Amino acid sequence: MSDPLPSWNDGPAKQAIISFVTETVTRGGPKYVEQEERIATFDQDGTLWVEQPTYAQVMFTFHQLGVMAAKDPKLKDVEPFKTVLSGDSAAIAKLGVPELLKVVALTHSGTTVEVFQKTAHEWLTSAQHPHFKRLYTDLVYQPMLEVMHYVRANGYKTFIVTGGGQDFVRTYAERVYGVPRDQVVGSAGGITFGYDEGGKAILTKDPKLLWVDDKTGKPVDIHLMIGRRPVMAFGNADGDQAMLEYAQGGEGARFMLLVHHDDATREYAYGPESTLSPFSEALMARAHQGGWMVVSMKKDWRRIFAWQS
Amino acid sequence: MSDPLPSWNDGPAKQAIISFVTETVTRGGPKYVEQEERIATFDQDGTLWVEQPTYAQVMFTFHQLGVMAAKDPKLKDVEPFKTVLSGDSAAIAKLGVPELLKVVALTHSGTTVEVFQKTAHEWLTSAQHPHFKRLYTDLVYQPMLEVMHYVRANGYKTFIVTGGGQDFVRTYAERVYGVPRDQVVGSAGGITFGYDEGGKAILTKDPKLLWVDDKTGKPVDIHLMIGRRPVMAFGNADGDQAMLEYAQGGEGARFMLLVHHDDATREYAYGPESTLSPFSEALMARAHQGGWMVVSMKKDWRRIFAWQS
After folding, report:
1. Residues of B with Cβ-Cβ distance to A226 under 8 angstroms
2. How far apart are CA A209 and CA A211, in angstroms?
3. What are B16-68's pLDDT values in tens digits?
4. ipTM at complex level
5. Residue B176 per-residue DSSP state
6. pTM score of the predicted model
7. Is A212 on the interface with B (CB under 8 A)?
8. Which of A3, B13, B154, B280 has a CA 20 to 30 Å removed from the CA of B27?
9. Which three-class secondary structure state does DSSP give residue B128?
């Protein structure tokens, strides 16, 4: 049988994934899981693709603000847009979440859902990551893609459960991860039903934030959108703890995994100090207490990206 | 080739379904639809199963109130519970939606999501319909089940989009319709994350109503939960109009169908006068204007239930 995880180095992490999947699909075995229960949830930023130096969606948001300001120069006089448009990274870094959400609300609303999809798609197929100089969709972790393919080949249904906007992630999830749009759970803004000038029914994106899919919001949204406890859950930061705890709280076989960013050479090394996705000491302690697998990108991954040898 | 819709009489409705599905899966044909776009949405009450004399979930709600009042007799002194517990059908019929939602909030909260599932499952596997004297799950329309199987066999992903509570419908959707829990979109109440006494992560149902999946809420929730315009949409009442309009508003081949309850002998006959699911004259006019297929249960369905010859 060919190796289902060729980008993983041999070791306890790779072995644990293969053992778990094999045991849960072995009919009659003590860890067997019925097919309809085989739900695997994956955080996205930092778990499936690069999240440093900042989330791709934040880069998209800032880019869109520039596009909008070119058409409506008054935006340059209004905070927090003024600061973002100044390009002053020190000042931008000081913006709080409420300010950033104002920029997201402005740039993610006022169009039909189809126009937004097209706009996001165009950015994603042209914008380059500042360090790697590649499309963001080329910065998907090949070892995690292999895990997704492997569990799907064993009857698991894979879901993305992301703090990112679900409308943004759905633009590429199918093409990049093989995850259909209805299997992407994320943060969401309001949607309004109406008709266009020709009388066709349309949905328009509102500036209102409906929910943030992070921390305890993740298990809540998993219930609202999926309706089942995951059997396998994958994350990389404090925001994923509740999702992994929810997976573990169910009966029968359970598998929880955290990706630890400790490879400053091939990707990034960051932990508790990260402003984006802190991996706190408390989370590390929780992982050890719960028997969660902590993956070292440096040691456990033979390669990180598909384009690496 | 065997008949995919044996419970349908030959006629324009059956022919339209078969032609549409055949054409949309014929690669290279003018109506071809890519597999990932093949989304079919089905209303539930009155479209997939019997909704008269009242919704199954309302019967469940009233039953649960009785169970709760047996433990907590003070409920019998508080409106609107007092009226419901009196069993006075004339008085109950006069209760407004806000009063009924109070009963739903009380009976659908205060437990973990798993306990609620178990409670609903037990009721559904024992309660009988007052007229047919059968389980509600035996009152599924066999012709619609055949449509669901037929479109799925042709690569369509089937979703239920119901005004009913999604936690309730998910209890049986997989077993009865072959629709997995994550493909059930419905009304929803709040969910709170927490820990049980042993420290295990749990989700508890709140009395707060999050959204009602009816009328323009249906296309909005389709976007939030599915993320794609349906290519086929099936309903039976005014509450489904926006969903069918949303399906029709997309590009390429589209199929919209309304079930019309005109069979007083084998099921029920009702239309604009129904307090549950009115099929107004305006909806009939909209269907004709849009070229939507209106199915006569009396003429188009050879049998209505699987247990009928």
Report:
1. 181-182
2. 6
3. 999 999 999 999 999 999 999 999 999 999 999 999 999 999 999 999 999 99
4. 0.97
5. H
6. 0.97
7. no
8. B13
9. strand
